[in-house]
Amino acid sequence: MREIERDFYALLTLPVSLIMNSNMPKILPDRKVSQVREILRINQLDGVAITDEESRLVGIVTMYDLLKAIEENKRDVPVEEIMTEDVITLSPHNTLADAIEYFRVYGYGRFPVVDENKVFLGMVTPLDIVIRLPSLKEEKEEIKEEEKSRVVRLEFSIEGGDFINGGEASSKIKRYLQNLGLPNHIIRRVAVASYEMEMNMVIHAYRGKLLIEISSDKIVIKAIDEGPGIEDVEKAKQPGYSTASPKVRELGFGAGMGLPNIISCSDEFDIKSAVGVGTEVTSIIYIR
């Protein structure tokens, strides 16, 4: 059962580009409603993307929209007059898990997939997922060797003093690693190290970035901030040492265990700091 669950969660991390229907017709906005309805009937579709001459998505229309327009004697009007323009889309880098969540949250029957320039690439429907899911495991095995050399990079912006959202980035990192099916003991170490780095920036810095690189053999977590820096790095590594303000301590933070916890979770650790400039902390955790 656990092996089946691991296989399923691994499939959830695959990109929607493997699932989408890329052989969809693209309709220009000036096509008549009656013409578009016939295109959908011939292709046995219940929805289609409306694109400009450069294949950029400008809207979407469903068979329901078309039939309703025909009932209202609009069969000869351009389809752009009845299409939905404010379309929620997926990118080809979104995962199967993202697509499933979109269907759950928004309740729509299809989502267009577009690139960074809004060029229409394909459509994803629940039926596409059901049909493609059985074959995805085989495709997952085929690309496994390629994934070994692939590095996934995640980046999060952190604002100093933002205790409301503090911990959100590290929570997202944890969920991402869980979806990858990594061992729990690795996930726990990464979660602790990334949380301490994130909260150190919230407590001490003006702003910063939390970066993570995931490869087949290691996870590199890096926190780079703009802030006051650390005057005595060796002292800052000692348990209980803290320069947090009384206000921060009242909130329950600043116990002086941030760097010690990061060090204890790391296979390799490095810190560089310049007073008046900022601090860079690096943690490397090997996957084994």
Model description:
This protein is an alpha+beta fold and 288 residues long. It has 2 domains: 2-140, CBS-domain (Roll); 151-286, Heat Shock Protein 90 (2-Layer Sandwich), CATH 3.30.565.10. The chain has helices at residues 2-12, 33-43, 63-71, 96-106, 126-142, 144-148, 168-180, 184-204, 233-236, 246-250, 258-265, and strands spanning 26-27, 47-51, 57-62, 111-114, 120-124, 152-159, 207-214, 218-226, 268-274, 278-286. The strands form 3 sheets. It has a 5-stranded antiparallel sheet with strand order 6-7-8-10-9, covered by helices on one side. A 3-stranded mixed sheet has the order 1-2-3. A hairpin with a 5-residue loop joins strand 2 and strand 3 (57-62). Helix 2 (33-43) packs across helix 3 and helix 8 runs antiparallel to helix 11 (258-265). It is elongated. Mean pLDDT is 87; it is low at 1-6.
Q: How would the blueprint of this fold be written?
A:
Blueprint: H1 2-12, E1 26-27, H2 33-43, E2 47-51, E3 57-62, H3 63-71, H4 96-106, E4 111-114, E5 120-124, H5 126-142, H6 144-148, E6 152-159, H7 168-180, H8 184-204, E7 207-214, E8 218-226, H9 233-236, H10 246-250, H11 258-265, E9 268-274, E10 278-286
Parallel strand pairs: 1-2
Antiparallel strand pairs: 2-3, 4-5, 6-7, 7-8, 8-10, 9-10
Helix pairs in contact: 2-3, 7-8, 8-11
